[in-house]
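Service request form, structural biology core

Requester: graduate student, group of Dr. S.
Request type: structure prediction, single chain
Budget code: on file
Notes: please return the result as structure tokens.

Sequence provided:
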Amino acid sequence: MRSRTGSGVRLDRILFMVDQTICKYQNAITGLFANQKDFPDHAWVRDNVYVIHSLWALYRAYMKCAEFDEDLTKANELGLTCVKMMQSILECMMRQADKVEVFKKFQRPVDSLHAKYSVSTKNQVCGDTEWGHLQIDATSLFLLTLAQITASGLQVVRNIDEVAFIQNLVYYIETGYRTPFQDFGIWERGDKTNQGIRELNASSIGMVKAALQAMNDVGDLFGDGSRRSAIHVLPDEIEQCSAVLSSMLPRESFSKVGLP
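Core staff response, request fulfilled:
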């Protein structure tokens, strides 16, 4: 008779909790996770990336501590769920590729990528001015997670078109340290008064720096060593983000003293 070790039992217990709190509320087609209480069909980019991190961490744990074939099956299912969610978020963003091109030129908030999308259709759920969409930290968190998941052996990017768009996202975030490049931040409402006034946020700059470093270190997105899927990052932009971040800390921004 087979018996489970303590680590295996704990992993199974965590998997049950994840299934009841996360997987239960995912869309069966897109895999996206929604805020069921307040916005039933709205999928925030940041929230979904947080969900991906929890699933990916459990996937890594099962891969490391697998005792039976069933554990590898669970790990494979978790890994595929992470890939599906990442691909769905990427598809949501790619539907606004024209906005990325315009934003790189003018850096206007109305041209920024949306912060949330429809769970079922992957389209936008509100207008360009109806929400604080300019959240550089959310886009940077997505790129950071993409680099980490790719480095772990899971392939998210499937073709050259997606590679080109990821490269565009790098250009989209890399000037996050500049003063005119103020965003709404992790609060989605701008400064401390919650009046939609954009400002430079240390959390956004730090996330940009982490994302640029991760994308620079990951090598290629196909995982086969080919140059066609390599992402190019300017080292100067990383250093600029680091310098501005060091000058801002420990303040989060001009109006907010502490980090979120």
